[in-house]
Design a protein that fits this description.
Order of helices and strands: EEEHE
Radius of gyration: 21 Å
Largest sheet: 4 strands, mixed
Helix content: under 10%
Oligomer: single chain
Number of strands: 4
Strand order of the largest sheet: 2-1-4-3
Distance between the termini: 79 Å
Number of helices: 1
Amino acid sequence: MCKHQSKPQTRKATVKRQPPIRLACVGCDRDDFDGVWRLPKNWTSISKEQTLGQSKAEVSVEDTSRSVFDWHTHIGYCPDCQ
């Protein structure tokens, strides 16, 4: 008699996508829009500065081309600073 062997079921790990937009204000550097899916309509002059990967990359002390304060992917003017 042959044993019935079933394939082991592998569970797929659910990878939760992070919101691709990290928006900062030019005037007040507010960060309450760090991690949004859409750009707010009441902000003005929004421009893309870098990718999400670049914004999360570690900045070494010797690197003078980047700043640790450049955590955002997009930058613009919030309603309070317009």
